[in-house]
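Suppose you are handed a protein chain with no further information: no name, no annotation, nothing but its sequence. What can you learn? This example shows the usual starting point.
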Amino acid sequence: MITASAASSGVHLLFAYGIFLASYLVFAIGRFPGTKIDRPAAAIIGAALMFTFRVISPAEGIRSIDFATIVLLASMMLIVSSLHFAGFFEWVAGLVVRFVPPSQLLPGVIFASGILSAFLVNDVVCLVMTPLLLKICQQFSKRPMPYLLALATASNIGSTATITGNPQNILIGSVSGIGYRYFLSALAPVAIIGLFIDWLVLHWLYRNRDAASSAAKPVTISFQGHAINRRRLAFPLIILCLVLAGFLAGISPPLVAALGGALLLIRRSSHPEEIYKEIDWPLMAFFVGLFLIIGAAEQAGIAQQMLSLAERLNLHNPWIFAGVVALLSNVVSNVPAVMLLKSLVPQFKNATQFWLLLAMASTLAGNLTVTGSIANIIVIEKARPEVEITFADYLRVGVPVTLATLALGVLWLRFIR
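A reasonable first move is to predict its three-dimensional structure. Written in structure tokens, the prediction is:
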């Protein structure tokens, strides 16, 4: 005879599975069929339904949220937003125009975007750099497509190097407890060599990139206008350097970043309302909703059942693990993939190595397709009025870059690091 308690437990499990699978369906296809529900909305709705059907209690929900991840992500966005308003990215573009010869623009774009994305959130770097790159291509009479692809792929590769390079690394850094310097020493070589691989692939595929675009006319565009006020830029740059120094000194990244973001809000020359507009609030809501959905899945036993399934896939093999992470990251996006696997990694014998593998594979897998990374979508959508980059255009670059860098990353972490 089935007791009332067992029946209730079965109903909760059924609701949990339904909400969990529906949420991840939206994460995979981008929108719920027949509606305008996107990924952040699906995370919020899924979390609300988990509470409504009592799959998870409010107290358990609060405990499932990793507030260090939220604080670090929001604080880094505050810092990058302040740099943007001070003209930092225009200043960087001006340095590229001034010191990089037109024939060396491709490596200039790759290494500039890669380095910026290593220490700042790559999505925001792509958001502010795409229009500037279009102007640079116009000034140099270049076909924009190779350089836009370079920006997208290099920002993903460069962001592999640090905890603060992208949202999934921020999550992994917080959950794993790996220090900033250790993370940097382990994955910076993969990012640096990966940028050279990216340069090699793009140089080979776009050997005639120096031919002027038929629609482009040589013009002179100044990046030294009113947007760049050196006195206004000095304070955010000093704060950024102090924050990075704090990271490298081993101080808690959320604490250091939050303090830096708070100091930038007290300047008289800036309006906090303008800075708030630059924060990706949908991404923040997405993270909170995901924490709640995964927390409910753990409470309902779904996560444990998935762990049992994973054991049969031999995920203890680094090559298989990296392949599964790369595939999952392109199916449901990298942040939901990492959120799903964060309960699995501590079960491994060498958990630190697998945390690094998860960070590396989920990030580099973002270069496989247009939808593999938010950074890719940002570049393509921001450039759309002037340049049309098709799925096939991106795939032509993304496949060799992703396969080569993933192989490099696994070899490095497995046999060298």
